[in-house]
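Task: fold both queries, return tokens.
Query 1:
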Amino acid sequence: MSRFAGRRCFITIVSFLIAASPFLISPASGAEITPQEKKLIRAAKKEGSVLILNPLFSDRTATRMGPAFIKHYGLGSNFKFRNVRKTTGAVVGQVRAEMKADKFTFDTFVVIHPGFFDAAVKRGVFLKLDSGQWKHSVATVEKAGQYHKYPYVVVPLAYTFQPVWNVRCPGMEGVKVNSYWDTVNPKLKGKTIVSRIPISTSYTLTTLAMQESGFDVFGFWKKLKATGPIVEGRTEPKMQMLIGCERGMDMWNMAGRVYQNVLKKPELAKSLRIGFYKEGQVMLGNQAAVPKRAPHPNAGKLLLEFLLSKEGADIFVEGEAVYTFRANYTPPPAVRPYLLDLSKTKLLGMKDWIGAAKKVKGIRSKWLGEFR
């Protein structure tokens, strides 16, 4: 059953989890913020700039986030906010290269790669955080089975891959998806897309989590191959394939990509559908940290506080249709139809995100054997 058509679902990242402390309100709304943030505001003003590196925040989100961050903390009109967006692999590659050179061009970064973050913590790469906002998320992060390493690594957001299809494409009328096996129905031959697992940490971790849950990954791949899929690595090109009816079904895309395209072209709301998997949705928490040699370390820390706050979450949740781990959070109305009600969704994590790194090469090799 589609979670998109006419449904108003709440994001509360696990409303069945803990109750949150009262939200702290920003200076922009006239109320108090945390002592930790107040200390960082003074230092960030002196630094005058912040740059965040990530694979997720679109231009629309960044355009709204910068002014909101500056206003929220009263940083002044001269403060500069920069968002640099690259693929997940490119983000990790840049951070690795700058770690090796011991010279950083960014102040904070957000990306999913637990093994990389864990190794960097052990090498002493990151600054120690003293967060006033993390307490509102930590319990839900842990109950959702996500990796963090506070006080060095926090988890401000998450996303999950869902089936997306276009009911106006030939042969897609009446299609519904609430199981992985629905996406490999023989009737979908010539209409499917397979995600290029070897180039994506997110796809790889989702595959490993599904396998750990007992799902027959290899049996599924054989049925998927039988549908004659097109292979593509990124969610945005896959969305364009669906919109143009080059293909009708993508088993792994993001609700946010649908939302962003509907904003540009509202009539797409009548044809694009978002499903879910009863076998389980793998929640992909994105980690964040501030390097010790960051050019504007206090501004980097303050930006992480903003992402962990309600005000910051409102910006990226509305912009990307992703999830915050902040407890008892209700998203902006415009994005609610695109988000799963996680209190009614089977969530899958992994028992050992770090140990999963040892399985990456093997699962990618298996994929190449099937879809090379």
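Query 1 returned. Query 2:
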Amino acid sequence: MSTTVPEPGHLKIGADGSMQGATSSYTKRLGEMGGVYRDEDAYQALLAELGPDHLVYQVQEHRNVTTEGALIIGTSTLLPGRVGDEFAVTRGHLHALADRAELYHCLSGTGVMLLETVDGESQAVPLQAGEAAHVPGHWIHRSVNTGDEPFVTLFCYPADAGQDYSIIQDAGGMASLVVGTENGWATRSNPDHHGYTTAAVTASSNRGI
């Protein structure tokens, strides 16, 4: 029985997140970010000001197969902004196969990789060009743009990992918020967060992308 061997990928990646050789891409716009930010009034005001089609972030990626052992490689470009005092964020996720890890390497801009475990540990890893965050399995993670320019990262993770986006929403948001201060940024506890449930993590193994 013969096995089809995938072709190697030849990618040209720019500091602006451009990727020659990408096989797919997607965008997230302001109208799709409902429920992500804690300050709903500020979100609705920004939505009225900028409109639902305002770009929040875009992703380009290269994937040739999705089987175990393969990799997905891509770029994430998160535009600057704030909703209330929260910096712009991606939706964030835990991998559907929760033990799968991911690498984020900052190409340009400045930001934070916000990391949390289901049992209450939280870390905020600052990133600038040339720095990387190695996100182990079982860590929920979200990108945050704390600067005035696009926050661009190169990411790589196992192709069978999938993403579970609902785990954050089901918990009332992440336990920490990244907010602006006079000196830059800081984390602040999210009073709406009521904990990640073990049931949600177990269920994540049965959810797809």
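Both queries returned. Flag for query 2: The chain has one domain: 12-65+75-204.
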